[in-house]
Specification:
The protein contains 18 helices and 35 strands. The chain is of the alpha/beta class. Bound molecules: beta-D-glucopyranose.
C-alpha cells in the first residue's frame, strides 16, 4: 500500500515536471510585473521570487513563433518581439504586420561615411521604426570585423577596423536604445566568415581577440545604453560561442561588467549547460533549454537554479530598464508612421555620404549637365524600376529589408540617374540580355571532331571501377546534353560500372570572336589546355583549331540498372541534366557607347550573390568584367559603380575605367544618391572602411582562409594565424600595397593639411591641424589620426586608427580640427598580464592622413 502511494505521488510529481501546471491553476501572485518597484535589478528579483521553476524555464527560450519570448500572463510579463536586423526592420510583430519598412544602406555603407552623427541618426531611425511596429529587440547592428573580403556578411558589418567599428557602433546602439528598443549587437564573436559557420572552430589568441575582434562589442556593450548580445554560430577556441564560458562569463559579464541579455543565434544553442556557461536565452525556441532538459540538468548538477535565475534576471532587468513592464506600456506607438519620412531622410543622407570615389581620371566625374548630351547606362545592377524591389538595395539573408514599393524608384539607379540628368541629357539604357535559354544547348557551336572533321565532338566512355577497364567509342554528338531517360544510358552503356564520359574535338571559329561557356551540372571543360569554369569567356581565333574536352564522371549505381549515384542516366531530367554550350557573351550591344559622352556601368553583387550562409567569390562574375572591359574599349569615359560589402577584384578592369565608385548597398535611396554624385550635386565623401586587395591572394588572412579539416576532429578549424596583422595592419607589416587602402576616398575637391600640433596633456594627447579646401567645390574631408608605437616589447602594427573627424569645407575654407587621444589609444593587450598596458616612456608616432597609406603630417611623442 505504501509503495502504491509513493508511486502515485511520484507519478504526479513527474507529470508536473513534464507538463508544468497551467498558469491559471496556480496561486494568484503576490506581485505582478507592473507592481514591482525599485531599480531594474530589484524589479527583476521581485518577479523571480514569485516565479515557479516552469515559468522561469519558459523564459530561457523563444516561444516557437520564431521571434518572440514567452508571455507569463499570471505575472503580467509580456512576450518581447525581435526583428532583424542591421539594415532596418525586416519582420515586424503581429499576424498581419506589414512586411515593408525603411531599407537603410547597409552597415559597411554607414561605416564608409565615417560619421558618428549619421550613425546616431541611423540608430535612432531604426529605433523609431521598431516603436512604430512594436518590436522590442532589434537584431542588429552586426559588429564583426572584415577579416577577408569574401565573407558573405561583410555588408552587414562596419568594416575592418576596431576603432571605426566601435565609434559607429556606440553611436548607433545608444540612439536606438534611447527610443525604447533594445539593439542586439551580433554575432559575438569571431564570426568573420560564413563558410561552415555552424561548425567551424575559430582559433585565435587572446591578444588578437582583445585587440581586434572584441573591442567594438566591448564599447557598445558598456557605453551603448541598454543593449543585448547575440552569440554567433561558430566555435571559438574549443567551444561554441553560446557555450563559451571564457567569452560570455569571464570576458563579457565579468571583465566588462555587461548587465544585459545574451541570446543565441537562431538554433545555435547545443547543450543545456549553455545556460551555466553564459547564455541567457535560446532562440528561436527552447529546443535545447526545454523544461525536461533543464530538469535533468538540475538533477545531475550540471545546471544550478542560480544559473537559471541569473539568465531570467537579465531578460527581466532589460525589460524593466526599458519600461516594458510599466502598467499600460505599449511598445507599438501608433502615432509613429510605418513609412517614415524621417527614416527616408536618414537613408538618403547615409547613402549620399557613403559612396567612395575610388578613381577619377581626367575629371571624368562629375558629369556636367551643360556639356553632356548622351549617357549610356548598362549593367546588371542598373535596377530599372519594375514590380520587384531592386536586388542591389541591400545584402541578402536575415538582414534583407523590403522597402515599400513607393520607394522602388528612389532605389533604382536608372531612375536616380535619369532624374539627376534632367531633361537635356539623353539617357540610353541598355538592358542585359536574358541568360541563354534551352535552345542554346541544342548544338555545340563551332565544335568539330578535328580541324577538317565533321561537326560535333567524339564521345567516348571509359568504364572503370569493378570489372575490366573498357573504352567504348560511341558516336559523334553535335550537342552535350545528358537529358537521358531515368535509369538508362545511351548506346548500351551499363549502369552498374563507374564511367567517365568524354567529348573531344576542336573548336573552330569562322572569325575571331569571344564565346561564353554556359554549362549546368559541373562538367570539367578543358579548352586549349586550360580548365574553364562555366561562365568563363574564351577567345577563338579564326581558322585556329582549339582542342576541347568535356568530361563527366559517374559512379555506378548501388543497385545495378537503377541509374547512377551522383551521376547521370539516373534520372538526369528535372534539373540534374548536364549540358554545355558556347554562346556569344550575353551583354547588350554597346555600339551606342562609342558616341556617348559617358558610359555608366552598374555592376557588382546583390542580395542573392552576397548573403548570409555562404561566402562569395572575390572576383566579379566574368560576364560583368567582360562588360566593363568591352565598354572601356569603346569609351574612355566609362564610370563603373560597384555594389559589394567589401573589396572585389578590380585589378583586371579597373585600369581601363575612367572613374570608379564603390557604392556598397545603398538602400532605398541609393538611386537618388548615385544620380546626385554622378552629376555633382553631392560631392562624394565616403572613405573605405576596409582594405581593397589587388588580388585575394595578397590578403594577409588568405593563407589561412577558409579553414581546414584537422585529423581527429569532426569539424573544420580556422586558425587566425595572422593574428593582429590582418587587413591594413598586415599589409603594413609586409610592406605591401593594396589596390585601395583603408580610409581611402577621393573627392571632387582637394584638401591640404598644415600646422600639425600634438600636445601632451594630463590624461589625453591632443592632435590638432588645419585642413583647407583647396579646390573649387564644397566638400567633406575625413581627417584620420593613426598611432604607432616604436620599439614595443611586443610586435605592434606600424599604425592603427585612433581618431577621425569629418569636416565640411567650402572652397578656400580652412578649419582647425582637434582630435583627442585618450590613454586607450596607446594601449595594447599584454597576454602575460592578461590586461591592457601602455608603455610609458616609449616613443609613439602620431600621423594624420587621408587614408592609412596617405599620411600627410606626422610627429612623435614620448608617452608619459
Ligand atoms: C542570423 C541572425 C539573425 C537570425 C534571425 C540567423 O540566421 O545569423 O543574424 O538575427 O537568423 O533571423
Amino acid at each position: 500500500m505504501k509503495l502504491k502511494i509513493t508511486l502515485i505521488v511520484l507519478s504526479v510529481a513527474c507529470l508536473q515536471l513534464i507538463c508544468p501546471r497551467p498558469a491559471a491553476a496556480q496561486a494568484a501572485p503576490a506581485i505582478k510585473a507592473q507592481d514591482t518597484q525599485g531599480t531594474p535589478d530589484e524589479r527583476a528579483d521581485q518577479l523571480i521570487a514569485e516565479m515557479t521553476l516552469a515559468e522561469k524555464v519558459s523564459l530561457l527560450g523563444g516561444d516557437r513563433s520564431g521571434f518572440n519570448t514567452h508571455t507569463i500572463e499570471r505575472l503580467g510579463i509580456p512576450g518581447f518581439w525581435m526583428s532583424d536586423g542591421p539594415q532596418g526592420v525586416r519582420n515586424a510583430p503581429g499576424p498581419n504586420a506589414s512586411r515593408h519598412a525603411c531599407a537603410f544602406p547597409c552597415g559597411a555603407a554607414l561605416a564608409a561615411t565615417w560619421d558618428a552623427g549619421l550613425a546616431a541618426a541611423y540608430g535612432k531611425a531604426v529605433g523609431l521604426e521598431d516603436r512604430a511596429r512594436g518590436t522590442h529587440f532589434q537584431l542588429g547592428p552586426g559588429l564583426n570585423i572584415c577579416r577577408v573580403p569574401v565573407n558573405g556578411r561583410n555588408f552587414e558589418y562596419f568594416g575592418e577596423d576596431p576603432f571605426l567599428t566601435s565609434v559607429i557602433a556606440v553611436n548607433w546602439v545608444k540612439a536606438c536604445s534611447a527610443q525604447g528598443s533594445v539593439p542586439t549587437i551580433k554575432h559575438f564573436a569571431a564570426n568573420n566568415q560564413e563558410w561552415n559557420r555552424n561548425s567551424v572552430e575559430v582559433q585565435a589568441d587572446e591578444r588578437t581577440l582583445q585587440e581586434i575582434y572584441l573591442p567594438a562589442f566591448k564599447k557598445a556593450a558598456t557605453e551603448g545604453g541598454i543593449v543585448a548580445v547575440m552569440c554567433s554560430y561558430n566555435r571559438l577556441n574549443g567551444f561554441y560561442t553560446s557555450a563559451n564560458d571564457w567569452l560570455l562569463n569571464q570576458v563579457l559579464k565579468n571583465q566588462w561588467g555587461f548587465k544585459g541579455l545574451v541570446m543565441s543565434d537562431w538554433g545555435a544553442s547545443h547543450a543545456t549547460t549553455d545556460v551555466a556557461r553564459g547564455l541567457d536565452l535560446e532562440m528561436p525556441n527552447s529546443a535545447n533549454l526545454s523544461f525536461a532538459n533543464i530538469q535533468n540538468a538540475l538533477n545531475n548538477g550540471s545546471v544550478k537554479e542560480a544559473d537559471i535565475n541569473h539568465a531570467v534576471h537579465r531578460l527581466l532587468r532589460t525589460a524593466a530598464a526599458q519600461g516594458w513592464l510599466e502598467a499600460g506600456w505599449t511598445q507599438k506607438q501608433t502615432n509613429l508612421p510605418l513609412d517614415s519620412p524621417e527614416s527616408d531622410k536618414v537613408a538618403l543622407a547615409v547613402a549620399e555620404n557613403a559612396i567612395v570615389l575610388l578613381k577619377n581620371d581626367h575629371h571624368t566625374l562629375p558629369l556636367d549637365r551643360a556639356k553632356v548630351k548622351t549617357i549610356v547606362v548598362a549593367g546588371p545592377n542598373v535596377s530599372a524600376t519594375g514590380s520587384n524591389a531592386p536586388a542591389n538595395m541591400g545584402g541578402g539573408g536575415s538582414g534583407a529589408v523590403e522597402t515599400f514599393p513607393s520607394h522602388y524608384a528612389s532605389a533604382s539607379y536608372l531612375d536616380g540617374i535619369t532624374k539627376s540628368a534632367g531633361p537635356n541629357v539623353k539617357v540610353v539604357y541598355l538592358p542585359m540580355p536574358p541568360p541563354p535559354g534551352d535552345a542554346a544547348y541544342a548544338m555545340l557551336t563551332n565544335a568539330r571532331t578535328s580541324a577538317h572533321g565533321e561537326a560535333g565532338l567524339t564521345l567516348t566512355v571509359n568504364l572503370t571501377g569493378d570489372g575490366p577497364a573498357v573504352q567504348i567509342p560511341l558516336a559523334v554528338q553535335t550537342a552535350i546534353n545528358t537529358n537521358w531517360p531515368a535509369g538508362q544510358l545511351p548506346f548500351g552503356v551499363p549502369t552498374n560500372r563507374d564511367a567517365t564520359f568524354t567529348w573531344t574535338g576542336v573548336l573552330m571559329a569562322p572569325q575571331d570572336s569571344d564565346w561564353q561557356i554556359v554549362a549546368g551540372g559541373n562538367p570539367v571543360i578543358v579548352i586549349n589546355g586550360r580548365t574553364n569554369a562555366p561562365g568563363d569567356i574564351i577567345h577563338l581565333q579564326s581558322g585556329k583549331p582549339s582542342p576541347v574536352s568535356v568530361q563527366l564522371r559517374a559512379q555506378a549505381s548501388a543497385a545495378a540498372g537503377r541509374g547512377r549515384r551522383g551521376g547521370f542516366g539516373g534520372g538526369f531530367g528535372g534539373g540534374r541534366q548536364i549540358r554545355v554550350a558556347l554562346v556569344p557573351p550575353q551583354i547588350p550591344d554597346l555600339s551606342a557607347a562609342r558616341s556617348a559622352d559617358a558610359v555608366v556601368l552598374c555592376v557588382g553583387l546583390n542580395r542573392n550573390t552576397e548573403s548570409e550562409g555562404a561566402d562569395r567569390p572575390f572576383d566579379l562574375p566574368v560576364l560583368q568584367q567582360y562588360l566593363i572591359t568591352s565598354a572601356c574599349k569603346l569609351n574612355p569615359h566609362t564610370i563603373v559603380i560597384n555594389n559589394s560589402g567589401a573589396g572585389v577584384g578590380m585589378s583586371t578592369w579597373g585600369p581601363a575605367a575612367g572613374a570608379m565608385l564603390q557604392a556598397w548597398y545603398l538602400g532605398q535611396e541609393g538611386g537618388n544618391a548615385i544620380g546626385e554624385v554622378l552629376f555633382g550635386d553631392v560631392n562624394p565623401s565616403g572613405h573605405l572602411c576596409s582594405t581593397f586587395d589587388k588580388k585575394f591572394e595578397d590578403n594577409p588572412a588568405f593563407p589561412y582562409y577558409p579553414g581546414k579539416a584537422e585529423s581527429g576532429m569532426n569539424y573544420p578549424v580556422e586558425p587566425y594565424t595572422e593574428g593582429i596583422f590582418y587587413g591594413y595592419r598586415g599589409y603594413d607589416k609586409a610592406g605591401k600595397k593594396p589596390l585601395f587602402p583603408f580610409g581611402f576616398g577621393l573627392s571632387y575637391t582637394t584638401f591640404k593639411y598644415s600646422h600639425l600640433k600634438v600636445a601632451t596633456g594630463e590624461s589625453n594627447v591632443t592632435v590638432s591641424l588645419d585642413t583647407e579646401n583647396t579646390g573649387k567645390r564644397a566638400g567633406a574631408d575625413v581627417v584620420q589620426v593613426y598611432v604607432g608605437e616604436q620599439n614595443c616589447p611586443l610586435s605592434r602594427p606600424v599604425r592603427e586608427l585612433k581618431g577621425f573627424q569629418r569636416v565640411t569645407l567650402n572652397p578656400g575654407e580652412t578649419k582647425r580640427v582637434e582630435i583627442s587621444l585618450p590613454r586607450a589609444s596607446f594601449a595594447y593587450y599584454d597576454p602575460a598580464k592578461q590586461d591592457w598596458t601602455v608603455d610609458s616612456g616609449k616613443t609613439f608616432t602620431i600621423e594624420a592622413g587621408q587614408s592609412e597609406q596617405d599620411i600627410k603630417l606626422s610627429d612623435r611623442i614620448v608617452y608619459r
